[in-house]
Amino acid sequence: MNRVVVTALAAITPLGNxxxxxxxxxxxxxxxxxxxxxxxxxxxxxxxAGEVKGFDPTKFINAKxxxxxxxxxxYAVSASKMLMEQAGWTIPAxxxxxxxxxxGVGLGGLDGIEHQHQKLMDSGPGRISPFFIPTIIANMxxxxxxxxxxxxxxxxxxxTACASGTHAIGSAFSEIKLGRxxxxxxxxxxSTITPLAFSGFNAMKALSTRxxxxxxxxxxxxxxxxxxxxxxxxxxxxxxxxxHAKARGAKILAEVVGAGASGDAFHMTAPPEDGSGAAIAxxxxxxxxxxxxxxxxxxxxxxxxTYLNDLCETRAIKAVFGEHAKNIAICGNKGQIGHLLxxxxxxxxxxxxxxxxxxxxxxxxxxISPDPECDLDxxxxxxxxxxxxYALSNSFGFGGTNxxxxxxxxxx
Length: 412
Description:
Elements: E1 4-12, H1 19-27, E2 34-35, E3 48-49, H2 63-67, H3 71-87, E4 99-104, H4 110-123, H5 132-136, H6 140-149, E5 155-158, H7 164-177, E6 183-190, H8 195-203, E7 233-241, H9 242-247, E8 254-263, H10 276-289, E9 298-300, H11 307-321, E10 329-331, H12 334-337, H13 344-358, E11 360-361, E12 384-385, E13 390-397, E14 401-408
Parallel strand pairs: 4-5, 4-6, 9-10, 9-13
Antiparallel strand pairs: 1-7, 1-8, 2-3, 6-7, 8-14, 11-12, 13-14
């Protein structure tokens, strides 16, 4: 079995159009959530979101090509270019068949579906774009990244709701660990801040309606949490076998040591109240790594700011870690960036690795009214200096799908 390491990171988030600004603003406790600008929210119960601001895809992509991509694919291709620039490496032709791409996408080109459907209704079938189908399908993010970098190994899209990005990283980890590929670009991308998405989530009562106070609307683990705030963006990691990374002289940021996946087998949208499905995924990640629960010192929580998720995740953490749960530095990034759906696991994995690299654990904002049932250390006091050895990143999605990644501070 190969050891697997992280050699580059990239992010486009509501906090910034690159990793550096996103991380700086996250650690500073700034909010990327505000009033929606991409469509008229009149009549919608929710009118706020974590939008990516001022993003120009033509900095990374030919203008004509960019017009033929949905926004989630633009984010993925742009982030992949930043990723490979940070890695200081391009895929040699002779290695192309051993380099792959796995990117998780939850809903795909929903914006394109809405616009093309309106054309159909207004003008008939003859007005539909010939690029409609190729651009909206969820695997186009991985496909276009593969084309951009000449990666001819595994080319896969994981679509598992809010766990899509995490499952993509887990799958990429397995590809390298088992020797199928040497290098993988992986993570998650999403952009579904659209009228239809808002209408659907509002019909479920899943979104926060604190429209007059966007910055304090997403409240992971807070007693007054009233739903998640939708976000958008992309988070990518470059994974390599340790042997490959050393051979090319790569800077190693962290090691990937475990992946866990499970199913609740319980309900379409609600987790079991004891958090048992999430607990299974966390235990599997620890077991694969051969890590005792007492060794984990940081968790990047799924922390959606919905009543059941935050409560059940807390119970799951307690079930897995016992008394040690109280000693773990936990953070919930969604208070600042919103819930990036299929991209959430990618971005939060990037932030987990950054925590290991920088010795800084981000805080969790908006814990205004403590919830007595969510009584762990969520970082209410803000970001803190702490050299964690292990970081666990959690993602849980509709359909009862759960994913966890375990990262370790790199030691030769």
